[in-house]
Amino acid sequence: MVQNPFNTIPPRKKSLISYFNPNSLISDQYRTILTNLQFASIDQKYRSLLITSPGYGEGKSTTVTNLAVSFALQGEKVLLIDGDLRKPAIHNAFKLENNVGLTNVLIGNAVLSEAIHQTEIGRLAILTSGSIPHNPSEIIASQAMRDLMAKLHDQYDLILFDCPPVLDVVDTKILANECDGVVLVVNNGKTDKEEALEANKILSASRASLLGIVLNEYK
Ligand SMILES: Nc1ncnc2c1ncn2[C@@H]1O[C@H](COP(=O)(O)OP(=O)(O)OP(=O)(O)O)[C@@H](O)[C@H]1O
Ligand SMILES: [Mg+2]
């Protein structure tokens, strides 16, 4: 049996393989995705991208984290935002506190500059989810969220969003509509074809611009 090399790497290093192991084949694959995204934005510069997948555990957070790292290592000023207000994961990947983040800024309990974490990885900054609210969809759909997006677009070359599965949680459709482009992660072993097609249909109906599909855990 051939073991997936990804599974032999310790958890944090696994989430951030593009940083800790930039010469690996996996990091190279993330750079290929990045190049394809750059080709896709040749005529229209995409300043905000959302990464989603049809269901749970298909590799959204892992993909968005490594894409953020890859873009940052190419010199871009990147902000990675944890837009998954139900099951946030980005703070774990970067070993950050999550007491203050997106939700706290949106409700006016925290100042943006204090909520953003600068990392050691190029000009990569992180905005964690913040306190988990009881009304995540309302927060994502708020005017405050739209105002924040406009402000952040002026400050960063690229904003990347992690978010919940598009088939299960309405937040993703709302956010997809606010972002310039969407990348759909499809998991080789977990996502079934019908779900992938349904996710595509939902994203089109939300007037999201689907830039491409990442096939994760392809053996
Ligand atoms: N290409 C891969 N090879 C091996 N393991 C992977 C791969 N991609 C993701 N994983 C692992 O699968 C698990 C789920 O990944 P991840 O958290 O990125 O998924 P998710 O879609 O964000 O999940 P959720 O829907 O819960 O937010 C994690 O343990 C992660 O390390
Ligand atoms: Mg996730």
From TrEMBL:
The keyword Kinase applies. It comes from the Bacteria. Keywords: Kinase, Transferase. Its EC number is 2.7.10.2. This is CpsD/CapB family tyrosine-protein kinase. It comes from Metabacillus hrfriensis.
